[in-house]
Amino acid sequence: ELKVEQNPLFLSMQEGKNYTIYCNYSTTSDRLYWYRQDPGKSLESLFVLLSNGAVKQEGRLMASLDTKARLSTLHITAAVHDLSATYFCAVDRGGADGLTFGKGTHLIIQP
Amino acid sequence: EAQVTQNPRYLITVTGKKLTVTCSQNMNHEYMSWYRQDPGLGLRQIYYSMNVEVTDKGDVPEGYKVSRKEKRNFPLILESPSPNQTSLYFCASSSAYRGNTIYFGEGSWLTVV
């Protein structure tokens, strides 16, 4: 059974700082997704990582995937308040089975 | 505009009263699925469908039914809702190519009293 663990689950940081959210998963997969969710809202797709070594960047967010280590990271550079949200990683289980989600990282960025 | 539309968005119902949450997508996607989101648990998959008339159980299927009679629609049916099915429900769709973006609906807040 695929398990997905995110760390930390809660993060409070100051604007301008850098930080990394980690996503570990337990079985082989070469597809990983990152989503953002604002309170009471749907999930917004941030990144789709499709292969070992994949790195994608959008603004202050950068995601990477190491399939051998079964690890993905979401790095935040020079955080701003607008990035406050809950971030989920989700791992593709293969076939048509869909995604297994981590429990989410609740990120608060304080001015 | 690519959309996954769920209805109702908000519902309070009573134990045992059958209800259906509809989901419709306008992207001609083959894959559709239902998730529930509970505090501290993330999202868990309820059912998924690879195409018309093809459905299968996800991680937490108990108490739910689905059907896929048309490609665009994937309703979630609670035959006899119970309070432990109080949750936020999301429908999702994607194309058959694995690795494409998976689109989520706006969510349906369901309370069973």
Brief synopsis:
The complex is a heterodimer of chains A (111) and B (113). By secondary structure, chain A is mainly β. Helix content of chain A is 0%, strand content 56%.
Folded structure, characterized:
The complex is a heterodimer of chains A (111) and B (113). Chain A has 111 residues and is an all-beta fold. Chain A is built from no helices and 11 strands. Chain A has strands at 4-7, 10-14, 19-25, 32-37, 43-49, 55-58, 61-66, 71-76, 85-92, 99-101, 105-110. In chain A, strands 2, 4, 5, 9, 10 and 11 form a 6-stranded mixed β-sheet that branches. A 5-stranded antiparallel β-sheet of chain A has the order 1-3-8-7-6, with no helix packed on it. The termini of chain A are far apart. The mean pLDDT of chain A is 92. In chain B, strands 2, 4, 5, 6, 9, 10 and 11 form a 7-stranded mixed β-sheet that branches. In chain B, strands 1-3-8-7 form a 4-stranded antiparallel β-sheet, with no helix packed on it. The radius of gyration of chain B is 13 Å and the shape is globular. The model of chain B has no long low-confidence stretch (mean pLDDT 93). Chain A binds chain B through residues 4, 31, 33, 35, 40-43, 45, 48, 50, 88, 90, 92, 94, 96-104, and chain B through 31, 33, 35, 40-45, 48, 50, 56, 58-59, 90, 92, 98-107.
